[in-house]
Write a structure and sequence with these properties.
This protein has about 350 residues and is mainly beta. It has 3 domains: about 40 residues, no CATH class; about 120 residues, YerB-like (YerB-like fold, 3-Layer(bba) Sandwich); about 130 residues, YerB-like (YerB-like fold, 3-Layer(bba) Sandwich), CATH 3.50.90. Helices cover about 10% and strands about 35% of the residues. The protein is built from 4 helices and 28 strands. Strands 8, 9, 10, 12, 13, 16, 21, 24, 25, 26 and 27 form an 11-stranded mixed sheet that branches. Strands 20-19-18-17-28 form a 5-stranded antiparallel sheet, with no helix packed on it. A 3-stranded antiparallel sheet has the order 3-4-5, with no helix packed on it. The chain starts with 8 loop residues before the first strand and ends with a strand. The N terminus is likely disordered.
């Protein structure tokens, strides 16, 4: 009897064997002489379906039904560098009070061991998280956001309730810029609240082919978004030709993930214009997520004018002719601005 070693990869309902020199070996039963050993059928590896992460389009080893987790991340200058952003599939950046933005970081393909600093919620961040049926994590909330959370409009873990248990304080930073959620805290919170932590995730649309750039695209080396007269709060993206990604800067400092010290590598950038209105004396805002409007889509050192739409709670880019644009695989950032006049592209 021949001695054989097999590895099995589950892809949908098919079982495939180990790869050998660019080929895959599939074991099949010999229907003839039962005393003969099983035979091996060699198939091209292209026949094996590749699995891609639903929210970043990158290949993964096996299908995952991890429920997305959306975390409110602090972007005040004392909160930088933040932890976990390098592992996010996509990040929304939207103004909160004054001229300071906050992030809604959405994790599905990889939930890091530590995320934060975590900050308080606003209603429009909850609406964005609901576009992915995400578990929503925050530390505090505005009155309207509290109403939504109390009404059960989203599954959530709030640091106001779980400070010191599910949420941990970093003694090297000052409050309110030192609250973090740990992966183990998320898992304990899901169990405690009896939330679902697995589900079939509806994927974003990604192309696995190189982008076909036509005359509607222009070159971009740098993008500047003016959120404030304070340089701490403004954003610059710079394209790096060597790895075909954008780096992010604020006040001249490149954005890094505090967990590993690595610079953020951003593949897709959407900058979208929406109506912002002040709604109270504290400077809280309403942000129109539903009406759609103008914007820019940036990828691989190119950009084009687009129209954005809210499709089932998700912000999706379309060409000016109305055709949906597929993202390139990688991390995506979506920046909301009150006006595209605050955006300078070089």
């Amino acid at each position: 009897m021949l001695k054989k070693t097999f590895c099995i990869i589950a892809i949908s309902t098919l079982l495939f064997g180990c790869q050998h020199e660019g080929k895959s070996v599939k074991t099949v039963k010999n229907e003839g002489n039962k005393e003969e050993p099983k035979k091996e059928e060699v198939i091209d590896k292209e026949e094996i379906d590749t699995i891609f992460a639903p929210l970043n389009g990158l290949p993964i080893s096996q299908a995952s039904e991890q429920r997305p987790v959306a975390v409110m991340v602090n972007n005040f200058h004392l909160a930088r560098p933040q932890s976990g952003l390098g592992k996010a599939d996509l990040v929304y950046e939207v103004l909160a009070e004054g001229d300071i933005t906050r992030f809604l970081a959405v994790f599905q393909s990889n939930i890091p061991v530590k995320i934060g600093p975590v900050r308080s919620a606003r209603d429009y961040y909850i609406d964005l998280a609901n576009g992915y049926h995400a578990l929503f994590i925050c530390h505090g909330n505005s009155p309207k956001a509290k109403e939504m959370m109390d009404a059960g409009l989203i599954d959530s873990l709030n640091g106001l309730i779980y400070d010191g248990t599910l949420f941990k304080r970093d003694p090297n930073r000052k409050a309110p810029h030192n609250s973090y959620i740990l992966k183990e805290g998320i898992e304990k919170g899901v169990e405690k609240r009896n939330y679902s932590f697995t589900e079939k995730v509806t994927p974003l649309d990604f192309t696995q082919d190189p982008v076909a750039f036509d005359s509607s695209w222009n070159s971009v080396n740098e993008v500047f978004i003016k959120y404030s007269y304070n340089p701490d709060n403004n954003v610059t993206y710079k394209f790096t030709e060597t790895n075909k990604h954008f780096q992010r800067y604020q006040d001249g400092v490149v954005a890094k993930d505090a967990l590993d010290g690595k610079q953020l590598q951003i593949k897709n950038i959407l900058i979208v214009e929406s109506t912002h209105k002040f709604i109270d004396k504290y400077g809280r805002r309403s942000v129109d997520l539903k009406s759609g409007g103008k914007g820019y889509y940036l990828v691989d050192g190119k950009y084009k004018n687009i129209q954005w739409k809210n499709v089932d709670g998700r912000i999706i880019p379309f060409t000016l002719e109305g055709t949906e644009i597929e993202f390139s695989p990688g991390q995506t950032w979506i920046n909301f601005v009150p006006s595209l006049s605050t955006v300078t592209i070089k």
